[in-house]
Amino acid sequence: MTNSSSDTFELAGKTYHSRLLVGTGKYKDMQETKLATEASGAEIMTVAIRRTNIGQNPGEENLLDTLPQSKYTYLPNTAGCYTADDAIRTCRLARELLDDHTLVKLEVLGDEKTLFPDVQQTYKAAEVLIKEGFQIMVYTNDDPIAAKNFEDMGCIAVMPLAAPIGSGLGIRNPHNIRTIVENANVPILVDAGVGTASDAAIAMELGCDGVLMNTAIAGAKDPILMASAMKKAIEAGREAYLAGRIPMKRFASASSPIEGTFF
Amino acid sequence: MNITVNGEKRDIPQGSTASDLLSLLEMQNDKVAMEVNMEIVPRSQHSEFRFNEGDKVEIVRAIGGG
User: Which of A38, A91, A150, B25 could form a disulfide with A155 if both were Cys (CB 3.0 to 4.6 A apart)?
Assistant: First the structure.
């Protein structure tokens, strides 16, 4: 039997036990960010790179102090970038900021309404960043061809969306996600669109290596409780995938034996 | 000498270094990264790097994000 403690996955040469990756945006304060991140059991967390507020909020609590790099693997993102150049620039700043840190989440967005990825710009950015030694986890469409292309380019993980970022619509195209997983030789993580625990479980049942989410936890009425629910859903979905589900049938098959009936 | 820091004009003493600017902004102990005219100025060079008139400076940090 495979138990959950021996079921690990590797990313950029490091072994992880938790298959839930979390974002750190949209929380009401730093304390809530900390408690929800802890409750999620996540070992990898995304951060955004933004301008410092000059002369504002002196002594403000710093994310790097609250959730230290000694405890969590930081995954700086390129959220808000609409061109390859902006994404490349953001990754370079992240590497400098986090002391030669090369693991990044690359996303290049196409439009503000859908926040769907601009895959062409994402290819362009990935090509430059891989040459510069970055280890890229790439946000992309639930498109098996694009996913394979990113793998072939040298991205270390491919992260297809389940649905638009922050939409909570769940896995809109499970068949494509399954195809992406079946074709892949790198970790596949669903990134964006998860709404509740069952969505996360479905992603894992489809064979994904992990799920990255933010709004589903941070936007819940009780983010800390939702973080705990997501942790369990990821574990349950993973175990169900490993256990191998029964095939679906149109008609019934009795659970109790027919033999030995006395009526 | 005038430079632009995170989109705002700022008058700093002639010959100021990157370290001087961070001290002036009370950020000397903060974990930040600096870019001048789109080029990174590594932390190891902050004490030697001197600004020129009109430099465009970005100082960034890590914050919560998804």
Answer: A150
